[in-house]
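look at this fold:
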Amino acid sequence: MALTEARFGKMGFEEHAGERGPSGETLVLLHDWLQDRSQMARLLPALHGRRVLNLDLPGCGESECPKGSYNVYYLTRSVVAAIDQLDGWPVRVLGVGLGGAVACQVAHEQRERVKGLVLVAPPGWTRPMSRREQLIASPLAGPLFALTGPQIAERYWRARYYSESELDPSRLSVMRQGLTRRGAGLAAARMYGPHRDPLLRILLSVLATPTTLLWGHEDRVRGLDEAERFAAQKPSCILEVVEGAGHALVETHPERVAAALLRAGDPAVGATPS
C-alpha cells in the first residue's frame, strides 16, 4: 500500500477516488485501538463513489512506530498533516473508539474545515479509569504489554461482538499481528491512557462541529449508560442507539455507519430511528 509522509514518520493510507461532498468535503476514516485501516473494509463499499481517506494511525497497520507519547494531540497532528498532504480539506470524519478521540481533537483544531463528525462508541471520558485500565496505561506497563498484549487483544476481541455468530477471526489476527512489530506493543500501551485525557470532557462540551454518536445497545466494552452520559455533555449531538448490536458497529452494521457519515453535518437530516 502507498505511504505518505506525516509530521511524525510515515503513515499508511488508502485513498479512494470519487466525488467530494456537497461542500467539497472528503470522508476521513479513523480506526479503533489495536486495529488498523482494514477495520473499515466492510464500510468502504457503502461509500463507493465518494472520495475517502482511510488512515493508519501512528503505531498501527503500515504506519511507522515513531518515538513519542502517543497522546491524542500527537495522533491529531499526524492526521492533520496527512490530510494536508493529501489535499483532503474540508472533511467529514468518522472516528471509531480511539479514532473518535482523535476526531474530536481534529475538529477542535480545524473547526472551520471539519463539517461533521460521526463517533462510534468513543472512549470513556465520562467515567474514571478502572484499576485495570490504569495499569495498562501506566508508563511501566509498555514493555509488559508487548508480551501480554496478544492475550489482552483476544479478550477485547471477544467483548466487541454482540453474539458468537458475529465473531470475525480476521480482526483478532490484525490485533495480534499488529502487536508483533517492533515498537507496536509499546505504542499500543501508550495510546491506551492518554486518549482518556480528562481535558477532552471539556472539549466535548464546547465543540461546535455537528456530531452524531452511534452506540450498540448491547455494547459490552462501553455500556449504554456511558453513551447517555456522553450525549448529556453535548446536548446538540444526535445519539443513535443500534438495537441488537455490540461494540463492533463498523463491522457488523456498516450501512448504518455509512448513512450517518454521508449525512453528517446536514442540519436538515435528523437521526435514524433505532
